Amino acid sequence: MTADDLTIDYEEGGILTTKQTDKVILSKGAWVTIMFRYQLWDAATESYGEDKFTIRRVQKRNGEYTARSKFNITNVKQAKLIIDALQGWTE
Question: Buried b / exposed e across 14-46, counting CB within 10 Å, b at 16+?
Fold first, then answer.
């Protein structure tokens, strides 16, 4: 398994409850940082909700990846605020 194989797809009861729609690997090595775009299944509406985002840090040790930390961005509005702040700091 490589960092490219890591996913946050999660299935429960035959339903893909967390559906990864994209990812960007921010860093590789013994510690891997990946940003995922995903949607959660809403059983009440039987559809996927709005886009959400998460940044995950995983550690590779003895050929196995172990999740170490995560930061969830809960909606597009919050994502845009983060983007604006980062752009302001890096210009």
Answer: eeeebbbeebeeeeeeeebbbebbbbebeeeee
Radius of gyration for the chain, computed over Cα atoms and rounded to the nearest angstrom:
15
Dist. CA 7–CA 20, nearest whole Å: 7
- How far apart CA 8 and CA 19 sit, in angstroms, is 7
The Cα–Cα gap between 55 and 24 comes to 9
**Residues, the chain:** 91
* Tens digits of residue pLDDT in 47-79: 999 999 999 999 999 989 999 999 999 899 999
Distance of alpha carbon 2 from alpha carbon 34, whole angstroms: 12
